[in-house]
Amino acid sequence: MNSTSSRGSFVLEGLRVGEHAHGHGHLADGREFSFVLRHGVARLVVYRADAPAVPGRAHVELTREAPVDGVAPRDRRAVGALLRSMLTAAGVPGS
User: How far is it, in rounded angstroms, from Cα 47 to Cα 67?
Assistant: First the structure.
């Protein structure tokens, strides 16, 4: 499933919702990201623009974690809103 944010700042690809929601996508500037919800914490990883198709730890540009209190992990919109919030808090341009 592809899900473009309302402002076009990121695209979620392969989003899986549920207790262990996860997914990946790309930002408006072309950088890739991944995220996962585990044990009440969301973890976001943004990779460098020059990262290969399968990035590794050496390609990580930033990592952020946030509590998922009050977020319904089975709701695609709620997960997308959490992701947008995390990108904004991390200072990612255009989020």
Answer: 21
Domain assignments of the chain as residue spans, ordered by start: 2-89
Q: How does pLDDT run across 61-77, given as a tens digit for each residue?
A: 999 999 998 899 999 99
Please state, in angstroms and rounded to a whole number, the distance separating the CA atoms of residues 32 and 19.
23
- Identify any residues that bridge with 26 across adjacent strands, giving them in sequence order: 11, 32
If DSSP states are collapsed to H, E and C, what string results for the chain? Answer: CEEECCCCCEEEEEEECCCCCEEEEEECCCCEEEEEEECCEEEEEEECCCCCCCCCHHHEEEEEEEECCCCCCCCHHHHHHHHHHHHHHCCCCCC
Tokens of 65: 């974690």
Confidence (pTM): 0.83
> Residue ranges of the chain with pLDDT lower than 70?
1-8, 94-95
